[in-house]
Amino acid sequence: MTGFQIAGASAADMEMIRGWADEEGWNPGDSDRFAFAVADPEGFLVGRQGGEPAACVSAVRYGAGFGFIGFYIARPAFRGQGYGIRLWDAAMRRLDGRLIGLDGVVEQQENYRKSGFRHAWNNVRYEGAPRGGAAGAGGVEVVDAASLPFGQLAAYDRRFFPEARDAFLSAWTGLPGRTALAAVREGRIEGIGVVRPSSGASRVGPLYAAGPGVAAALLRGLAEQAPGGLVCVDVPDANPKAAPLFADLGLAPVFETARMYTGPAPAVDLAGLYGVTSLELG
Fold this sequence. Notes:
Helix content is 27%, strand content 34%. The chain is built from 8 helices and 13 strands. A hairpin with a 2-residue loop joins strand 8 (179-185) and strand 9. Helix 2 (32-39) runs antiparallel to helix 6 (166-174).
């Protein structure tokens, strides 16, 4: 592997990585890379062989104790030659000493176990245009999330994620072309959802809710902003109420990943987690 070099990703590299993920069928959001850069400007790595991009990975730090690995891709021409593992090792070194999470394809679980990861749950991607059939929203009002104090949104998000991520959340909810909705009851947030344009079905994530009815109301509101009403959501099977809701709404499972951690799964509100923010950054 003479001539193999690893460096932080440039803005052009971030666009390239997004294209690679699209080729893998992951359907990342069109503008995700801008929020990703805010999360950790140095958290994206590209490996080049003789100057040619060969592989990429993200190793994003959150707070003092958490990290997340994603975008682990070796280009087809460079697979099976050790380039990917060199980049993987660099990512793990960058997050050394932290609890690390990832969402990987299910068939690669054994390889991740060799690096110290343990299975926590599976995320199943549900896709379709939501129809009627779920319970009502139970009296909550669905509003533009930007109309609420950002501190309230950030505090609510903190229930579902191991570390505060205010800068990322601000970018994630506020980028052009996105819609962020909140479900509110008597001034109290009972759910948040974000939809963003993608090359395929519009991606919804996160989707937090106090119950299935609230989640359904948010999802229907978000789908109104998607071309043809077509959306996809990465649904954790750790919330037993989530999958039946999406099936009831007429969405179908199309893809599955394994959420894994290098230690005990963090204590988050799984009962209110109906859709993860992003398979790439947690």
